[in-house]
Every structure is written in C-alpha cells, then in structure tokens.
Amino acid sequence: MAGTRIITLDGEYAGWQAELRSGVSARILLDLESGSSSRALEAFAKMVVSHNFKGLDGLPVKDILDAPIDALSATLDAWGKANQPDPK
Predict the structure, then answer these.
(1) pLDDT class for 1, splitting at 50, 70, 90?
(2) How far apart are CA 41 and CA 69, in angstroms?
(3) How far is CA 85 from the centre of its chain?
(4) What separation in angstroms does the CA of 17 have from each of 13, 55, 63, 72, 77?
C-alpha cells in the first residue's frame, strides 16, 4: 500500500494540515483530471486520510468537503507538486 504525505498550508490557512495518500488509483487520477469539479472534489476527498480543516464558521469539519474551496485547492496543488516524479 502506498504511503501518505502531510500537506501543511500557510497564509490565510496557516496551521491547517491534511494527510493525503501519496499514491492514487487510476480511477482517482481520471476523476481528478476529468475537468468536472464534482468528480475531482469527490476524488480528492477519497485521498484524505485525516485533516484539521475548519468550515466557513471557523468550526472543525468532519467532511473535508465542508472546508473552504480555497483551502482544498491549495492542498491539492501542494500534493501535486510534492508528488512530481524525480527528474534524475
């Protein structure tokens, strides 16, 4: 089984972090790259192992999809950058 990667946000969401799977299935990758926001967000949620994200009201959320979309986008972008293949 693939490992996980901790993504820690900064700026407006400083201190927020999510543990995401390092590897994903082909189905999750297809959904992430589908161009459909709903499919991509559902796929993203399947990658999350744990998180400390909060909702728009500032209270912790159980489902990461209840967190602000900007925080989710920043997390997915950071995960993508961290999972780039080594150019060696």
Answers:
(1) very low
(2) 9
(3) 18
(4) 9, 14, 14, 10, 13
Torsion of CA 2, 60, 74, 40, to 10 degrees: 60
Residue 83 identity (one-letter amino acid): N
Closest CA to 64 of 51, 74, 79, 77: 51
Position 45: which residue type? A
Q: Where are the domains of the chain?
A: 4-82
H-assigned helices in 1-88: 26-32, 37-47, 69-82
Supply the pTM of this predicted model.
0.86
Gyration radius from the chain CA atoms: 13
